[in-house]
DNA sequence: TCTGAAATATCTCCACC
DNA sequence: GGTGGAGATATTTCAGA
């Protein structure tokens, strides 16, 4: 993954991070490049793995999820936890971590009873400690502005 | 935020979550709808706040960030923490939480020394406990598949 | 690697249902 | 809310530098 980003690449990444539906022509217009040049750069950034994909940021509440929680869990078997996470659509992310617990689960739930159910289910796999999210910043939004990106990654 | 999603909406959300650069025609082709119909639905979903935006999923390593960490912090003033988060591009997310600490910071760093520097800086604001992320699943990727979305959110 | 031009495909209105 | 068509834009490909 050694890929040297130049100023055009960083600008393109910043624009796509903010709005990935921008057309190549529009991007080109903003950074003073023609659309084939932008298209080729985006293709290379994807190929190099710098861009992993393009997604929509969805509002969890609009999807029926009322709040989020972080569950710290200590397990014997990570496989059992992986399987649990894969089979529960409430899981936003699962991180294996260092520290007093060995994994951190980020989940979205519909109601307190729903959270209770998940905690109870997880209880069969390991020992949990749960924190409810009161408010968030940068949740899935644009981050790491291109202006501040290192010139030589790695 | 009361918006009733029908089967078309859910399919559109699933497709855009997976690849937000799909054209309206292409989406229409896959769900058997014409492009103006898809465009209109996407416009309404954005207007209703169900879709908050479209972004690129970038590889943190390619951007020069070697690993991630979660920092639990207990602070007197949330304002000071908010300001700290806003001024540090390493911050992926900041969550105010319940539990033994009052906030959880998700950050990306270039090297252990870099992390140490951030922890030291945070030490002036509150008391921290840090966990390093060893591996992640679903980090920023597609989630909440449309097939499993509730028919009536809320 | 970029540009410019040509062919193809897409988006955006609009009238109609 | 959806369709279908027309005009304006966009994407893609390629020759040339």
From TrEMBL, chains A, B:
Record CDD domains: HTH_ARSR (cd00090)
Entry keyword set: DNA-binding, Transcription, Transcription regulation
GO molecular function: sequence-specific DNA binding
One Gene Ontology cellular component: cytosol
InterPro entries assigned: ArsR-like_HTH (IPR011991), AsnC-type_HTH_dom (IPR000485), Dimeric_a/b-barrel (IPR011008), Tscrpt_reg_AsnC-like (IPR019888), Tscrpt_reg_AsnC/Lrp_C (IPR019887), WH-like_DNA-bd_sf (IPR036388), WH_DNA-bd_sf (IPR036390)
PANTHER family registered for this protein in UniProt: HTH-TYPE TRANSCRIPTIONAL REGULATOR LRPC (PTHR30154:SF53), LEUCINE-RESPONSIVE REGULATORY PROTEIN (PTHR30154)
Name the record gives this protein: Lrp/AsnC family transcriptional regulator
Keyword match Transcription regulation: yes
Domain HTH asnC-type: 5-66
GO biological process: regulation of DNA-templated transcription; response to amino acid
SUPFAM superfamilies to which the protein is assigned, alphabetical: Dimeric alpha+beta barrel, Winged helix' DNA-binding domain
């Amino acid at each position: 993954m050694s890929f040297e980003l130049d100023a055009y690449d960083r600008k393109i990444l910043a624009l796509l991070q903010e709005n990935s539906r921008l057309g190549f022509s529009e991007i080109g217009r903003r950074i003073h490049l023609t659309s084939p040049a932008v298209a080729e750069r985006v293709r290379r950034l994807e190929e190099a793995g710098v861009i992993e994909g393009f997604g929509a940021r969805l509002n969890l509440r609009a999807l029926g999820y009322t709040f989020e929680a972080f569950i710290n869990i200590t397990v014997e078997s990570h496989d059992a936890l992986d399987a649990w996470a894969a089979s529960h659509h409430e899981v936003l992310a699962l991180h294996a971590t260092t520290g007093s617990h060995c994994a951190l689960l980020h989940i979205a739930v519909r109601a307190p009873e729903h959270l209770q159910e998940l905690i109870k289910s997880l209880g069969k796999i390991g020992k949990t400690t749960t924190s409810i999210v009161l408010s968030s910043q940068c949740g899935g939004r644009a981050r790491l502005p291109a202006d501040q990106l290192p010139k030589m990654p790695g």
